[in-house]
Amino acid sequence: MADRSKSRIRFSRLYSFLCLRSPFRDEHSQIGQKGFSRVVYCNEPDSTEQLQLRYRSNYVSTTKYNAFNFIPKSLFEQFRRVANIYFLVVACVSFSPLAPYTATSILFPLIVVIGATMAKEAVEDWRRRKQDIEANNRKVEVYDRNHNFQETRWKKLRVGDLVKVYKNEYFPADLLLLSSSYEDGICYVETMNLDGETNLKVKHALDVTASLHDDDSFQQFKAVMKCEDPNEDLYAFVGTLFYNGQRHPLSVQQILLRDSKLRNTDYVYGVVIFTGHDTKVMQNATDPPSKRSNIERKMDKIIYILFSTLILISFIGSFFFGIQTKNDIVGGKLKRWYLRPDKTTVFYDPKRAVLAAFFHFLTGLMLYGSLIPISLYVSIEIVKVLQSIFINQDQDMYYEDTDKPARARTSNLNEELGQVDTILSDKTGTLTCNSMEFVKCTIAGIAYGRGMTEVERALAKRKGKAVPDSGNTSSYVRGSSDRHTDSGKSIRGFNFRDERIMNGHWVNEPHADVIQKFFRVLALCHTAIPDVNQESGEISYEAESPDEAAFVIAARELGFEFFERTQTSISLHEFDHQSGRKIDRSYKLLHVLEFSSARKRMSVIVQNVENQLLLLCKGADSVMFERLSRNGRDFEATTRDHIKEYAEAGLRTLVVAYRELNEEEFRLWEEEFLQAQTSLNADRDAMVDAAAERIERNLILLGATAVEDKLQKGVPECIDKLAEAGIKMWVITGDKMETAINIGYACSLLRDDMKQIVVTLDSPEINDLERQGNKEAIAKASSASISKQISEGNSQISLSNGSSISFGLIIDGKSLSFALNKNLEDSFLDLAINCSSVICCRSTPKQKALVTRLVKRGIGKTTLAIGDGANDVGMLQEADIGVGISGVEGMQAVMSSDFSIAQFRFLERLLLVHGHWCYRRISMMICYFFYKNIAFGFTLFWFEAYASFSGKPAYNDWYMSFYNVFFTSLPVIALGVFDQDISARLCLKYPVLYKEGVQNVLFSWPLVLGWMLNGVISSMIIFFFTTNAVVNQAFRRDGHVVDYEVLGVMMYTCVVWTVNCQMAISINYFTWIQHFFIWGSIAFWYAFLVMYGAVSPIISTTAYQVLVETCAPSPFYWLVTLLVVVSSLLPYLSYRTLQIQFRPMIHDIIQRLRSEGSETEISGELSLGNKEKLALVEEKLIDRVNAT
Fold first, then answer.
1. Chain center to CA of 519
2. What whole-number distance in Å separates Cα of residue 522 and Cα of residue 128?
3. In angstroms, rounded to a whole number, what is the distance separating the alpha carbons of residues 1018 and 1147?
4. For residues 711 and 739, what is the distance between their CA atoms, to the nearest angstrom?
5. What is the per-residue pLDDT for 1052?
6. What are the TM regions of this chain, as residue ranges (predicted)?
7. Which of 267, 661, 326, 648 is nearest to 463 (CA)?
């Protein structure tokens, strides 16, 4: 039954502008030339001609590596890091006599670190490969030599193959549409994976192939297609089909692109044109821009400082070594005779002291290599991956309605989330739901719709009017029929409440006839397709836009239910005010004049049962009012007023009108219109538009609709919190200025105490010039006007310095195009930066990206862009951080983003909680890494100076190799993953804490250098306290003093204890994992000494039985360890005590508040008295932050 109904519908009559036979254009003359050389032999993939062309297979790979290039390519990636190159060079030189330790001891940690990173790369690439395997092995039906359709895998498809794709399946390659289950060859396609849009696109086969409806009809089908070469343009296609001795032009309307989905069509037949990486979706698959965090870039600079330090101390050592060596023989006398300088190698030859010093310099570069943290990069990568897992698993950022959790799509930018200075946001679908609901209308000059939108509530508050409770907002939905009222079930797309016209009461209104015509227009003027649920009988609609679906649903709920569409008719269930019941009424459908962005309106021409010819039209007020007849303007003034009110309420409006046509007028127009449609001239589109223009005039005004794109839940509260955190907010939208401003007030972006600076070109002078049409004069005057307005805005801000006045900047898209010019962009940016909020209206996708680039480069701080649609991709990729909203506009924004969330309100937790934690953890982790390596490395320097700069290491080779890999690495990873200075609840309670990241307090140069200085001080205490403690006294009962091996173990033990205890006192939030890693690392040092010391002295050398036989039995060893460790920690403890007391940071104050409030805290809530105290301290805290 369904198939028969579909075969009756000839939809080519419904899509007069989009789905016509493609005319031959200028581009078709290029077929066969460069760029247009592709030839496809349809249904002949095995022909000699096709095989000779050697087109790509349909196998697709998105992996970075393969089995052959993984090792060389991955190694190249690893050694792009300067630290790894250094250790590779050291490892190579370690095979020479210059090395102060064995080659194995330096190769082992290098192999571990490089191997771990390569393993991570391999795992990530294997995940991509699994996705490729899944895509390549999907099944599709292909026409074989036996004239049957057989299932085959996508990867086996070839150019020229004839395929059959069924409903809700993805297209396996770029196809030429031959025919479909509809008689006219119409099919519906969802391109969400390509451009992010969920609205269905209509595709139309050529008339010559549309009749090929079943499998048997393809037995004799042969054709040749010549077309453009593979390219990335999704919205254009040029080709020619040679079939049955005739040439037929092809356009994008006949092309089905890979990864788009067939919808509302049982099946289609198509021929493969482009395969694999030649398909348009793969041609668009560019690598995302490489983004690095500010901390990572600063870390590179610190590495360079450490390299400089390494070179400096190596030079100092070699300088003094050269002096000492030269003085070994003075006047023929041997000064250090026990070294036999008269019989030595070139490395210690007093006669060639300069050369010996140079070799010693090279030795020093290897000896002090521990200053460079070899495991830093791999540790940070491990930590960031684990942080990303915590973000992904955060239940408080999971949106149950759509089953969408938060996703960290990259782990490289976790800490950047804690340093965001400016957010640039889209509006529709990001701040709002992008789910249109019919909420109000004006008919015959009377406004209907009792609800109050969120924007209206904010507007009423601003004007000091009484605001009804939330039960009267537009979110309160009542039914429009008995069925609906009884069930209390809300209806998607319908949020209207007005008892005057609901439940058939409109018949009692003074203009009942106008109301009837108004809702008939909404029920008939569209291209929606009804879909009847066979079980429940409920009707849903597939429409090309959410607005259109909302209009059809509104008409249904108010008594005009659209239920059937055929080739020539539209049928409604209408409420008959005479009989008081619903009747079926059918309208003959003659023409549909499609909506386009240029026309800004759509019309249908129908004939009712009374044989009246009616043109029904709806469109933007900017084009509709000028098309009204002299007698059709009865309600124009009041309708304009209502439209203005609706726009101020943040609603989208369309004007509804109609006219009655006489038969002669329609006949003459139809001849002209059909002639324009079938024209093959290059100006065919202009001819069609002109014909439509002639019929869409002398309209009679009926009223206007108002649909709401509601604010998402929690948006105002989220923006308030972000503002308290010191984050500036920009909204870049395509809406009207009035709508954008009022949305701004509703979501707390604009406030009553904020002074508005409006930059616009909507002035009488500019309008006069535009009417004259002098483009050069318009541009010159516009640029001067924008320059003047920006200067005046900057002056206002300058005059208000020292006051508490805040400013909000509003600029429209036309003005923005001039403000972004080179000569004005700096002054515009200065104005915008000094404003608390910025709203850019009527902005294009390109302007969104340009504004983002300007802000990122201009302020030099972290920018975050957030959006949900394909038009936001440029903005997301341009910003330092791109956050995609996984909403109703598809996944294009999410696929181009660094992080994805389901609702805007989750941005609050993503930044204030995870952002702050990640920033603090990574900052502390890097600072601690440099501290522990400096503390260890400088003990080597002090020892070398103590040993006459001999180049002798203080420690055993394997002590040095395992220091960064086993004895100190795990605690720092635990710090980066688990530490919390403040709980998530308090991070949200005190958003001012976030300013630590914005101001980069925790990774500033003073703090980084302070940690480095702490490392130097710790090394001095460890070395000098240890050596002075053991000088001139017995270490064992038998009177033996400390030797070289024991001194090395004592110092190394003190280093391990000190750096791990430093970690323990720096951690704010202990878990059992951190305890296990910190104390376990210390215990492992002793276990290693026992195990390694038990090995043959040929291998263990200076470590042989040194703990068991020498150190452990000596109380002196344990006493020195205790005293040295405590002494090493005292400088840091003293500094922190003084800082907390006299110069506390924000988190210090909040921690103090938490500890003071803990006794009176019950179930996470504070007592009233303590709350007052906290509010007072918080006020002082904010004042202190603002002062700094």
1. 41
2. 47
3. 26
4. 13
5. 95
6. 82-100, 106-123, 302-323, 353-378, 929-949, 961-979, 1000-1026, 1046-1069, 1076-1095, 1115-1135
7. 648
Confidence (pLDDT) at 469: 54
φ/ψ (deg, to 5) at 541 = -125, 135
Helix extents (H) in 274-405: 280-283, 294-326, 353-367, 376-392
For residue 532, the cross-strand partners are: 539
SS (H, E, C) 316-351: HHHHHHHHHHHCCEECCEECCHHHCHHHCCHHHCHH
**Cβ atoms within 10 Å of 676's Cβ, excluding its own:** 20
Calculate the CA 541 to chain-centre distance.
31
Catalytically annotated residue among 174, 184, 195, 426: 426
Quick one: residue 405, left, alpha or beta (phi over 0 = left, psi -120 to 50 = alpha)?
A: beta
Q: Is 207 a catalytic residue?
A: no
Using CA atoms, how far apart are residues 480 and 87, in angstroms rounded to an integer? 75
C-alpha closest to that of 1059 among 999, 1106, 1018, 1107: 1018
Beta-carbon-side half-sphere exposure of residue 1138 (alpha carbons within 13 Å): 6
Please give the model's pTM, rounded to 2 decimal places. 0.76
Distance, in Å, from the CA atom of 1093 to the CA atom of 959, rounded to the nearest integer, reads: 12
**Least confident stretch, 247-251, 260-264, 807-811, 1176-1180:** 1176-1180
Residue type, 821: N
CA atoms within 13 A on the CB side of 621: 18
1024 contact partners, CB below 8 Å, separation of at least 6: 942
Those residues with Cβ within 8 angstroms of residue 446's Cβ, 6 or more apart along the chain or in another chain? 509, 511
Tell me how many degrees the CA angle 223-227-233 measures, rounded to the nearest 5.
135
Q: Compute the distance between CA of residue 263 and CA of residue 1002 in angstroms, rounded to an integer.
A: 53
- Say which DSSP state 472 is in: G
Q: What's the token pair of residue 92?
A: 């190579």
pLDDT tier at 348, thresholds 50, 70, 90: confident
Q: List pLDDT tens digits, range 883-893.
A: 988 866 556 67
Among 303-312, 455-464, 880-889, 956-965, whose mean pLDDT is lowest? 455-464
As a whole number of angstroms, the distance between CA 1012 and CA 1028 comes to: 24
By the 8 A CB rule, do 176 and 270 touch? yes
Distance of CA 103 to the CA centre of its chain: 46
Q: How many CB atoms lie within 10 A of CB 108?
A: 17
Instruction: Name the 3-class secondary structure at 580.
Output: coil
If DSSP codes are grouped into helix, strand and coil, which group holds residue 993?
helix
Residues in the annotated binding site for ATP: 426-428, 548, 595, 618, 652, 733-735, 842, 848, 871-872
CA angle (950 as vertex; 949, 954 as ends), nearest 5: 90
Residue 554 has pLDDT above 70, yes or no: yes
Q: What does the pLDDT look like over 20-42, one tens digit per residue?
A: 445 555 555 556 566 678 999 99
Amino acid at 1102: T
Question: What is the arithmetic mean of pLDDT over 454-480?
Answer: 54
3-class SS at 149? strand
- DSSP 3-state assignment of 142? strand
SS3 label, residue 105:
helix
Percentage of the chain beyond pLDDT 90 is: 33
User: Which tops the pLDDT comparison, 483 or 367?
Assistant: 367
Q: Binding site: residue ranges?
A: 426-428, 548, 595, 618, 652, 733-735, 842, 848, 868, 871-872
Alpha helices in 393-463 (DSSP H): 454-462
Say if CB 1088 and CB 966 are below 8 A apart. yes
The reported pLDDT for the residue numbered 478 is 32
Annotated binding site for Mg(2+): 426, 428, 868, 872
Q: How far apart are CA 226 and CA 42, in angstroms?
A: 11
Identify the DSSP state of 63. -
Q: Report the C-alpha gap between 1058 and 1129 in whole angstroms.
A: 7
Cα–Cα distance between 322 and 361 in angstroms, integer? 10
Residues contacting 1055, CB < 8 A, separation 6+ = 935, 936, 939, 963, 1022
